[in-house]
Specification:
single chain, 241 residues, alpha+beta, Alpha-Beta Plaits, 3 domains, 9-stranded mixed sheet, 23% helix, elongated, binds uracil
Length: 241
């Protein structure tokens, strides 16, 4: 990787300001002053310092976002705000992306990373990673829907979902809504909404609580994010191995 690109990615400003640091003889690689931004470096091996301070290299970044409604699960969009826009500038430098999609009006757990291998494993249909959602449903959900989900729901395009565990948390006969939790094993487009449509019910509100071993940290306010803990990363890696 080029030295100037590496420094820009590790937060030393734009390529232009990095160029100035290099010109000002502030940058050393393995204790030699480097004068050319295009110098090739191997960040995992080389000792790169700016003004005598070692620049630490981190290849992969993992963030847990409590996605709010109204932002889209994409890296860029001309019209809508994306989940990446919610990260601060420094955290956007490693080109992170969301692992899978939540609808614009869905909130909850979203993993954001630049680790393509881990993302691929988590999204692989072969892995059938459990995803747990909480939802408010229009109408009263009961045994009929629980059984239908248990016996496999067929979506509008003929796709047959794996048996899903539906639990009714509470019902409100006054406003004719039900609060439910459902665990699904696939990641089809609008899957939870379409599963409820298949049993003639409508999702009013949807929130993802977990994905595989990763559980939404409820102390994270909507729209906020934090790096995964070492333990959470280790669990995800063990799970996707
Ligand atoms: N199922 C949906 O219908 N929407 C989501 O955002 C996630 C799962």
């Amino acid at each position: 990787m080029r030295l100037d690109k590496f420094l820009a990615h590790t937060g030393y400003g734009t390529r232009k300001s990095v160029k100035e640091l290099i010109k000002g003889k502030k940058v050393t690689v393995n204790e030699s002053v480097i004068r050319e931004g295009k110098t090739h470096v191997q960040p995992e091996k080389d000792v790169i310092s700016v003004s005598g301070e070692r620049v630490h290299y981190q290849e992969f970044f993992y963030f847990m976002l409590h996605k709010p409604q109204g932002v889209i699960s994409a890296t860029e969009d001309k019209v809508h705000k994306t989940v990446i826009d919610l990260l601060n500038h420094q955290d956007q430098l490693s080109n992170p992306f969301p692992v899978g999609r939540l609808d614009k009006d869905t909130e909850g757990l979203l993993l954001i990373t630049n680790d393509g291998v881990l993302a691929h494993e988590l999204l692989s249909p072969r892995k059938e990673v459990d995803k747990c959602y909480e939802a408010i449903i229009e109408g009263i959900v009961g045994e009929k829907e629980i059984k239908a989900f248990e016996q496999s729901v067929m979506l509008d395009d003929g796709f047959v979902c794996r048996p899903a565990k539906l639990s009714v948390l509470s019902t409100s006969p006054a406003d004719q809504t039900s609060k439910i939790q459902v665990i699904i094993h696939e990641g089809k487009f609008h899957q939870v909404k379409r599963m409820f449509e298949a049993v003639e019910k409508k999702v009013q509100y949807l929130k993802r609580l977990s994905m595989g071993p990763l559980v939404l940290d409820e102390s994270l306010k909507t729209g906020h994010y934090r790096p995964l803990t070492a333990n959470e990363i280790a669990e995800l890696k063990a799970f996707t191995k």
